[in-house]
């Protein structure tokens, strides 16, 4: 099947390669020029409009403004092929997902919100968990295409907001887990307990989940290669706060991790893995924490 792919970043590259492996004809566009040897089997096209001329199109751009610019402002919905389904796998705001769903419906194009759980290595190994929501016929049309990308497709209903909100809630919980582990390190290292030993204890007793396993290893090794960039995580915390505000709720733990990420980005760590916030928490720098809050408030 002919599949368009827009955005070959850390996540998109592995996903596009898995679509090729599954036997699809993948025509992909990325803003920056890519070495074709990095994406064997993928046909690199000159414009997003060319990639959009397919049976199914994936978009894995970084955020709402990028999708607005590349898809909406460029008028791609108007010239789309009859029967096209557009699968947006980026982590975007709930409001924008609803706007996209309405605009696609008006243009007669299928739309599926399909944000993903899993880091770039998981995307490359075709083991993502995909949170899918959209009209049943659109979801059914893309389900077989999502199969080689994923361990499981979680079908969350017709309202795209369900998938996008669930994704934001997941990232919020991971950031809180990183913060919780870092604060536990502050206490236990304070009495001379090695962090690797402490994490062995909590993984073997109270918290044996995947997020704890993977991020405790990064905190122990103090290794912050992305992964998931802190600047994108800050975007997600902001979107989660917006989603909470729309529901009339304050989420105080979320405010704390948003501040940590604001501080990390403010200190120039935006391209590092988001687990860098553990370093900041362990450092325990109160003034810098406040400057993180101020930096984020000024955005
Ligand atoms: P990334 O490596 O930074 O890639 C971002 C992609 O968006 C690149 O292709 C970039 O093009 C493109 N882009 C950004 N702004 C653009 C613009 N204005 N116009 C055109 N293209 C633009 O990010 P990623 O880690 O792949 O993340 C992509 C999405 O997946 C994000 O929404 C993120 O929140 C979500 N996500 C990430 C992870 C993770 O662990 N990394 C996991 C789950 C979900 P260039 O190459 O030209 O910069």
Provide an overview of this structure.
There is one protein chain. The protein has two domains: about 1-155, Rossmann fold, CATH 3.40.50; about 165-295, N-(1-d-carboxylethyl)-l-norvaline Dehydrogenase, domain 2, CATH 1.10.1040.10. Strands 1, 2, 3, 4, 5, 6, 7, 8 and 9 form a nine-stranded mixed β-sheet that branches. The protein contains 13 helices and nine strands. About 55% of the residues lie in helices and about 15% in strands. The protein is an alpha/beta fold and about 300 residues long. The site of NADP nicotinamide-adenine-dinucleotide phosphate (NAP) has 26 residues, from helix 1, helix 3 and helix 10. NADP nicotinamide-adenine-dinucleotide phosphate binds near residues 10 and 60.
> Percent of residues in helical segments?
40-55%
First-last Cα distance? 42 Å
**CATH fold naming of the largest domain:** Rossmann fold
Instruction: Round the mean pLDDT to the nearest integer and report it.
Output: 95
Give the strand content: 5-15%
